[in-house]
């Protein structure tokens, strides 16, 4: 079957040893210290801790990723650092020659294209999914995303509209990957295609993080406060409400609060980066679209990359539960609830 997933999702990540990563860090970025691998979907990531305790992440990008896409991520982080220096996101560490990345080709017979190697500051903490859920944390996350999108407002880049399968506003592209027997997902996809996607031309579009899942959100060890948002690998120019919808989608499967839990994020986001009424009424269906993407894409990829199955499927079960919960709510009822929540949030 011809798929729309792209080479960076269909092909395995580049082979990189810890010794090779250490050599890259020292020779090109002047970094020396203990080094250990980190998980990743497309890239090879390594945590480097210098003797003085300062910690960095060395990222060896997938050889199928373009130079423009790599530059987009670094440029966006530089934009955020300038617009909101206190926002808890990674900071770019430039190479010794002043560039934001270096090119390196792994010494493997089947790797011919070079990989782009970058270094970002390490954001400490524990992933949101490992701590008890709370309205406080959901509100803080909504606020961080509101600040982030405000910082990215007006930012553009030649690769801003790149071809990203995780773009919920283009969810119909994965229609051929849906199991013919999965009537639930098929019905949800048809609804979004018919009732929501045509309306997105009337909402604002801008650069968004697009992947505030609980593995990319860091809290302090006690789980009291949000301390960071990581992984800008899926940044893209997309409908503005897709940002908070993506984050809120992961809340539907947490506990029994359902849509109420999502409202904590949406209200806090709205305070800092207000949504129009039209934008607010697309949030729920964009949540559904994100859940469809998770269920379909992760299932497809896990079959083709069994060695990375656990990481790929880390959100699969929760997404299925969330989708079931979303489909039990009438769309008009959900939209009315969201609009009412936003009216009382400012």
TrEMBL record:
Gene3D superfamilies: 3.90.1200.10. It is found in: Cytoplasm. InterPro entries: Aminoglycoside_PTrfase, Kinase-like_dom_sf, Pseudomonas-type_ThrB. Its EC number is 2.7.1.81. Its main location: cytoplasm. It catalyses: (5R)-5-hydroxy-L-lysine + GTP = (5R)-5-phosphooxy-L-lysine + GDP + H(+). It comes from the Bacteria. Residues 38-252 form the Aminoglycoside phosphotransferase domain. It is an enzyme of class 2 (transferase). Keywords: Cytoplasm, Kinase, Transferase. Catalyzes the GTP-dependent phosphorylation of 5-hydroxy-L-lysine. PANTHER family: AMINOGLYCOSIDE PHOSPHOTRANSFERASE DOMAIN-CONTAINING PROTEIN-RELATED, HYDROXYLYSINE KINASE. This is Hydroxylysine kinase. It comes from Streptomyces plumbiresistens.
């Amino acid at each position: 079957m011809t798929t729309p997933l792209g080479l960076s999702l269909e092909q395995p990540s580049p082979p990189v040893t810890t010794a090779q990563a250490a050599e890259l860090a020292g020779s090109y970025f002047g970094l020396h210290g203990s080094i250990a691998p980190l998980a990743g979907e497309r890239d090879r990531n390594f945590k480097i801790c210098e003797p003085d305790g300062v910690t960095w992440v060395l990222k060896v990008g997938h050889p199928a990723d373009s130079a423009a896409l790599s530059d987009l991520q670094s440029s966006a982080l530089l934009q955020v650092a300038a617009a909101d220096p206190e926002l808890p996101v990674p900071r770019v560490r430039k190479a010794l020659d002043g560039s934001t990345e270096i090119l390196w080709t792994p010494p493997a017979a089947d790797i011919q294209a070079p990989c782009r190697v970058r270094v970002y500051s390490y954001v400490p903490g524990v992933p949101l999914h490992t701590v008890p859920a709370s309205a406080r944390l959901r509100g803080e996350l909504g606020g961080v995303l509101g600040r982030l999108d405000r910082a990215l407002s007006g930012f553009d880049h030649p690769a801003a509209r790149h071809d990203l399968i995780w773009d919920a506003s283009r969810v119909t592209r994965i229609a051929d990957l849906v199991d013919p027997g999965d009537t639930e997902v098929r019905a949800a996809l048809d609804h979004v295609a018919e009732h929501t996607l045509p309306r997105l031309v009337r909402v604002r579009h801008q650069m968004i993080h697009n992947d505030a899942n609980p593995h990319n959100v860091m809290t302090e060890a006690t789980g009291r406060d949000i301390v960071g948002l990581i992984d800008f690998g899926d940044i893209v120019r997309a409908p503005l409400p897709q940002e908070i919808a993506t984050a809120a989608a992961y809340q539907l499967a947490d506990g029994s609060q359902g849509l109420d839990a999502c409202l904590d994020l949406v209200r806090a986001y709205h305070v800092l980066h207000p949504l129009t009424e039209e934008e607010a009424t697309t949030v729920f269906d964009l949540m559904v679209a994100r859940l469809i993407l998770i269920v379909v894409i992760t299932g497809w990829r896990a079959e083709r990359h069994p060695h990375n199955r656990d990481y790929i499927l880390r959100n699969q079960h929760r997404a299925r539960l969330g989708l079931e919960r979303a489909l039990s709510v009438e769309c008009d009822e959900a939209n009315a609830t969201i609009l009412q929540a936003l009216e009382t949030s400012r």
